[in-house]
Amino acid sequence: MSVKRISSTRLRFLTCCASLLYAATGGSAWAQSQEPSPKPSDQDAIVVTAQKKPELLLNAPLPISVVSAKTLTDQNLVRLSDFYNRIPGIQYTGDRVTNIAIRGITSGGVTTSTVAIVIDDIPLGASTIAGQPTIPDFDPATLERIEVLRGPQGTLYGASSLGGLIRYVTREPDTHKFSGRVEGGANFIDGGSGGKSFRGSVNIPIIENRAALSVSGFYRDDPRWIDNIRPGAAGKNVNRREGWGGRAALKIDATDNLKVTFAAIRQKTDTNYSTLSTSGAIPICPECVGPNIGMVATYTPKYNDLKTISVTPSTGEQKYQVYSARAEWNLNWATASSTTAWSRSDNLLSNDVTQNFSFLFQIYGAPSDASINIKAHDYTRKFSQELRLAENGKVFDWLLGAFYTSEHSSTEQILTLSSPSATPLNSGGPTAYREVAVFANATYHVTPKWNVQGGARYSKNKLESRNENVIDGPAQAIFGPSSSGQNPSLKDHAFTWLLSSDYHVSDNIMTYARVSTGYRPGGTNNDGFGPLTYGSDTVTNYELGLKGYVVPRVLSLDVSVFQIDWKNIQLQNTDVNSGIGYFTNGSKARSRGVEIASQAKPWGGMVIDANAAFTDAKLTQDLPILTGSTGLLGKAGDRLPFSAKFSTSISARQSFSLGGSTKAFVGATLAHVGDRQTAFQSSAGARPRFTLPSYSIVDLQAGISMDEVWHLSGYIRNLFNENAVINAGNGNGVLSPTAVFAQPRTFGFTVARDF
Description:
mainly beta, 24-stranded antiparallel β-sheet, 7 helices, 53% strand
């Protein structure tokens, strides 16, 4: 059985629709949920804080995509996996932060993330590979908007933003008006089960103009569709994902010049049979064994179909806590700000890995019905402090800042055999990371139309880690002897910088040129697997852009042309004997491309958003072949993993009146992602790289509102029930191939009441 592809009739229909919409928008993109405007008084103007100051989207000389909370709630887009393919240049292959990339900057393994994630300027997750969390996916009840910054952001945001940055911007408490919202919804998967969701928020002014409290919360039980056929654990629709959480924020305007906001966020997600994404990983290519082990993998299911697994029960628990205090003090000549935060992330998983570690059966003399399970706990405890002093003037804008973080992380893994009862491997790697940085940014307004910007950041960091490996006697032939001890400490420093110049051709059009750099710290490996340490890597981004109104208030356009040079690439490899991953450095790569985003309002009530990204990400030098199984096979010109050469998204939404205070809308979205390559093959792996096929997914939306307080919306996602391949791999050619598929056709609705 092959992966289901879109039929020729549907493809012609979609292509026709796409061509019409593409022509209507001038060949452009979805990236902004509303168009930029040069006039602050314009009700459609979008204000962003991507450069750590409020400014109109049009005036920010860098490519930014904005997704509003309203867009998320109207279409029940509650996770990054629901809407990533509507943002130009972003790649998604799973639930972990390490599984997202922007502009093709990824080596395909579970390395330290190349995309930084912040919430209200608070960095989340570990700065090293240890303790990397799942993607937080904050509920729309908590958010004001999401800003996606494309290209390295090392100067203002520091380490691990090589490809870009995702900013979650929460809602500020309002000291003037009492308001709230309650919402409930249900959804159903074709051939699966139903799900439900509830969310609510309330804003309470405590002292008018001085203090307010904002509280929001949610509960969500997602629909399920994966079947398990393993004897003793068989069941239908087993991939449970249930989450809850909330946020409380207290804003105090102590004086007219001093404002303080205290906030707390907590959320938890429980999962069953859900590892790499909502759907988990499906075993494929049963013929890729024995004499055929070297064949290119197919998408033939190993079991009944592409929604069937055969594993022992697996569970997961992901938890987030973020506590922060933010203060702004207007000194009249400048504004001082402080952001203090402590966060905690935990990711506990118990998974059946029999397919990957079946070689242990022979060592232990296990029966054929035995199973192998891995229990993993990744965690990070992180304290951060940022201080800034800034002023925006008519001639000169400047910002000075200092940053400090202290992190304690670990990845702990226990491998167990069911029969005979044994623990072949028990490993851990506690890590302590500290970083101190100073940064500055300045913009000189040469003329009312011409601005020149420069920025720099200097940081010093130190990494200390231990390895603690307890190996059972029979397994030492595979995993090596038990070991425990301090790894070599790593000290490093980095200098990142940016230069940009923007010119307003008119009140409606701006052009800019930008050069920026990024940096990612190195790390250590567990003793016995790969080199003891690996180094940092860096990127330099060259970019030209244009944004603004092509036709005022009718057609907006945002175009960027870029090239990113990447040096000393961090790579994940897999040990051919043990199946354990480790990290090394490669050589050089580059990514170049064009991103186009646009919004058109051709007639009353109609909004057409579209995007297109053309990305050419490849190695520019051969990957080094080191010793034994430590090399990856990669030649200059080979594509970087999981990067599509072409992707696009086109959305159309028509709003209209039904009379009186009743309004309605209908809409549709087409998202297309081109073919991609899996991770690089190990020099000791027998299975080659293979291709993830392109896919197109269509979503429909509709809604009605009454008296501007009652709202009913409905949606269909993946209308044609495409078996879109989101992720696939074979452990660098060492493990049996698996694939992760998009959620099947899903129907849903929500009912909400504002007050």
